[in-house]
Amino acid sequence: MVAYQVMGKTRIKDPAMCPHCFRTAAGHESIIKNFGLRNMDDGTTRVQSWCRDCRKRITGGNVQ
């Protein structure tokens, strides 16, 4: 596992894996494209745990 520092307190696990469909992404650009990031209350930015496709299916397409 590699952690990238983007800005401030950012945690990007590489590779990332969706626990719902098991899709994986490796490398900063692929992780951002396929998973996205989320801002936590403590100011930390982390990788979304579910991939964008799984989140779209659950939310009906409303995924940023």
Descriptive account of the structure:
The chain is an alpha+beta fold. The protein has one domain (2-59): Wheat Germ Agglutinin (Isolectin 2), domain 1. It contains two helices and six strands. It has helices spanning 28-34, 52-59, and strands spanning 2-4, 10-14, 16-17, 24-25, 37-39, 45-47. It has a four-stranded mixed beta sheet with strand order 1-2-6-5, with helices on one face. Strands 3-4 form a two-stranded antiparallel ribbon. The longest helix is centred in the last third of the chain and has 8 residues, at 52-59. The chain is globular and about 30 Å long. It starts with a strand and ends in a 5-residue tail after the last helix. The model has no long low-confidence stretch (mean pLDDT 83).
